[in-house]
């Protein structure tokens, strides 16, 4: 299994850091990476996605200190500037009276997952993907977590239950040992959230025989064990085992988790003979169509992550050789997203970014080029879209056209983001034989960055020397 540092990317089509989305099920989503770009920003310099400008943001340590005095739990909201799922939560869920009530119950800390503090706590808490919402008690012990984007009707019952009745993992294990079915399910879910398949299965086997006999036939326990098995098999990269395990999970009614598990099946079966692979994947077409028709392509989607459902379904069409269906699906997604957005791209960044990805997946190049200009205009304070477009121009052999966009992105970026953008500015300048300017850009970025991110500093220096 890759570490989150190895596969982070701001140009990802999904916000998952690690192969196994906990609450989502346990397949290898792993980002559909376009380019492996580690995007690290300094939390003190980058405003959180949904924090009020008038509020000073506490650090996690200071929040825990306040928690011990106020006897309120701490809610950590892990997100990143490039995370489309985080934008969904910010604009659709973490709003209104429901969210205000949560903020009264807990000390909420916005955590930039790409900051040094965010990365340290993600490693400590074994956060596998974004967004993640983790509740800690005053001692820093975890009381519960919610992983990935969720619609309002699912998010608030979960977070309110954690805030009201949160138990540490050790407390849940004790209840499970005593025979509590709900505690067994909760512990299995906790191991899934941490992508710890082998450890979760070993814990279940350690339960008293009477407890295992009591709970093993419960559908929630059966599914949890199969999901942990999938995590374990993916960690071992045994494709035959992954295929068998993914099929078992997909046999359940797993709702919005289906695209992620299907991703595992698609990836693991990629090397099979065409006839054998089609026979394996054909039964997955009907349940995916049902998911799209009833929970994605509807006025009020049940699945918060519409993008993964669309892209995985398109990948399934590709694997089955049905390019007509693939094109029709992508066109349907594009048309519906345009309809929902109207003429205001700034009204819903999650949808706006979905449209960018659908256009790219459909190879509607001219339309995508025009649309990227609109995205840059809609989000002028954000480096991400200017960076993406400038880099695409550079990679297309147009360094002179790329430079203004890379310069715009550089002015908005911080930390490793700035180092990353600087490296492409340097590359563009050197291709134009403007070596003195390239050296100046690199020197400025290195001076502004300080001692952080030594690998990226070395990469930038190497780019200058190339």
UniProtKB/TrEMBL annotation:
Domain of life (superkingdom): Bacteria
PANTHER family xref list: THIOL:DISULFIDE INTERCHANGE PROTEIN DSBD
UniProt xrefs under Pfam families: Thioredoxin_7
Gene3D superfamilies: Glutaredoxin (3.40.30.10)
Listed name of the protein: Thioredoxin domain-containing protein
GO biological process, one term: cell redox homeostasis
Domain Thioredoxin positions: 38-164
Entry's Gene Ontology molecular function annotations: protein-disulfide reductase activity
InterPro entries for this protein: Thioredoxin-like_sf, Thioredoxin_domain, TPR-like_helical_dom_sf
């Amino acid at each position: 299994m890759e570490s989150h540092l190895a596969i982070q990317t701001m140009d990802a089509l999904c916000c998952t850091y690690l192969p196994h989305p906990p609450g989502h099920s346990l397949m290898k989503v792993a980002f559909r990476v376009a380019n492996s770009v580690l995007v690290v920003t300094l939390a003190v310099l980058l405003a959180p996605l949904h924090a009020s400008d008038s509020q000073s943001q506490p650090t996690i340590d200071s929040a825990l200190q306040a928690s011990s005095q106020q006897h309120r739990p701490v809610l950590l909201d892990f997100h990143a500037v490039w995370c489309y799922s985080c934008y969904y939560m910010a604009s659709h869920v973490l709003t209104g009276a429901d969210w205000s009530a949560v903020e009264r119950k807990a000390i909420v800390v916005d955590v930039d997952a790409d900051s040094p503090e965010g990365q340290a706590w993600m490693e400590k808490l074994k956060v596998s993907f974004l967004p993640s919402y983790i509740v800690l008690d005053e001692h820093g012990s975890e009381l519960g977590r919610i992983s990935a984007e969720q619609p309002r009707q699912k998010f608030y019952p979960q977070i309110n239950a954690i805030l009201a009745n949160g138990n540490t993992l050790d407390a849940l294990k004790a209840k499970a040992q005593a025979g509590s079915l709900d505690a067994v399910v909760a512990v299995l879910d906790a191991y899934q959230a941490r992508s710890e398949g082998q450890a979760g299965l070993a814990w279940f086997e350690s339960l008293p025989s009477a407890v295992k006999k009591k709970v093993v036939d419960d559908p929630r326990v059966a599914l949890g064990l199969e999901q942990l098995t999938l995590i374990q098999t993916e960690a071992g990269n045994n494709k035959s085992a992954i295929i068998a395990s993914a099929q078992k999970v997909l046999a359940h009614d797993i709702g919005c988790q289906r695209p992620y598990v299907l991703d595992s099946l698609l990836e693991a079966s990629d090397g099979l003979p065409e006839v054998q692979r089609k026979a394996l994947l054909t039964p997955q077409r009907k349940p995916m169509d049902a998911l799209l028709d009833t929970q994605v392509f509807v006025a009020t989607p049940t699945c918060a992550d519409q993008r993964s459902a669309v892209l995985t379904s398109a990948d399934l069409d590709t694997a089955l050789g049905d390019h007509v269906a693939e094109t029709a699906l992508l066109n349907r997604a594009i048309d519906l997203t345009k309809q929902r957005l109207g003429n205001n791209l700034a009204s819903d960044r999650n949808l706006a970014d979905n449209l960018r990805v659908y256009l790219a997946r459909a190879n509607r190049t001219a339309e995508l080029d025009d649309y990227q200009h609109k995205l840059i205009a809609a989000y002028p304070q954000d480096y991400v879209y200017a960076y993406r477009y400038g880099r695409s121009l550079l990679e297309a052999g147009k360094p002179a056209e790329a430079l203004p966009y890379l310069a715009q992105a550089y002015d908005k970026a911080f930390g490793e983001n700035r180092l990353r953008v600087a490296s492409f500015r340097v590359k563009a300048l050197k291709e134009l034989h403007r070596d003195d300017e390239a050296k100046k850009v690199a020197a400025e970025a290195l001076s502004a960055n300080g001692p952080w991110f030594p690998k990226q500093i070395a990469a930038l220096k190497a780019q200058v020397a190339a």
